[in-house]
Amino acid sequence: MTGNETAVENTKKDFSGFTGNQLKLIAVSAMFLDHLAWNLWPGYQKEWWLILIHLIGRLTAPMMWFMIVEGYCHTRNLKKYLLRLFIFSILSHFAYNFCFGISFIPFKNSFLNQTSVMWALFWAVAALYIQDDERRGFKLKEWQKTISIILICLISFPSDWSCFPVLCSLMLFRFRGNLKNQMLGMLAYITMYAAVWCFAIDVVYGLLQYGIIIVWPFMHFYNGQRGKWKGMKWFFYLFYVGHLILLGILRLAVNGNIKTIV
Q1: For position 107, what pLDDT does the model report?
Q2: Which residue, 70, 83, 141, 182, is the most exposed by fewest CB within 10 angstroms?
Q3: Is 60 exceeded by the pLDDT of residue 3?
């Protein structure tokens, strides 16, 4: 039995801790606070309470990556899973860009942050499939996998969090069942992301990206169960799009038609 199989067997026996539904609720709550702060107080302000809000917001991304891997491992219909992510990545593009005052036309004003993280999450699942020989039922050569992953990273690079949802999801999948290696891997990747922030945007907010480490206890106490409410997957997608539209309206009302994030 492999390490991954052992981890899955262990989680099946453990019904305490957080379910997947509960982790998603925590993720969307942290995300809402973070996005609300960006739209009410745009820029890189240094008030302690504002930095604290953005620190809490660092919970969302790694929790999304973690649940994407769990979703991939547990889904019974990968095609429907990919289709759902693709459709909502398109819807989210317009909602996300409206929320933060970014042009709907990609690359009109920048190469970075041109669409939502949903686009990168869609490609993360595609990358997982490419790496997963067991699920595919046929083998790809390592050079084929490498080229495919590089292309996927390039395609997802302009997303929120850039290509790191792809890279971190692959790493979380590789070390599934080994929380220590999962966290160390994410921190290693985020070091590259934080470096870009520090040198090109803002040092304080660059270092803030290391706040993803606060996801550790939530991942540790994940019990491997989805939760009783089967509608959570639809709630998550609809909430993601809906809260972006509402916060976009709030942005216009409070600050006018300005861009609130880089």
Answers
A1: 82
A2: 141
A3: no
